[in-house]
C-alpha cells in the first residue's frame, strides 16, 4: 500500500513519519516500510505493551516498537507553531 502512495504523491520515505495509535497496524506498517514511527497513546496501545515488545528477543515483537511516542497528537502542536 505504501508503494502506491509513494508513486502517486512522490513521497520521500526519509522525510516521512508514520503516526498511529496501534502497534499491530500503524507502527508495523511504518517500520516495515522503513519509515520513522510515532505512536500516540490515545488508542488501545499502552506504554507497558510497548516496553514489553521492546524488551523481547522476538524479531516479530521488535517490529512493533515505535521510534517515538506521545500521549496525544496534541502534544505536537507547540512544535508546529514555529
Automatic annotation (TrEMBL):
It comes from Buteo japonicus. InterPro entries: HAD-like_sf, HAD_sf. Coiled coil: none annotated. The lineage of its organism: Eukaryota, Metazoa, Chordata, Craniata, Vertebrata. GO terms for molecular function: sn-glycerol 3-phosphatase activity. Its main location: membrane. It comes from the Eukaryota. GO terms for cellular component: cytosol; plasma membrane. The keyword Cytoplasm applies. It is found in: Cell membrane; Cytoplasm, Cytosol. Keywords: Cell membrane, Cytoplasm, Membrane. It is a peripheral membrane protein. This is Phosphoglycolate phosphatase.
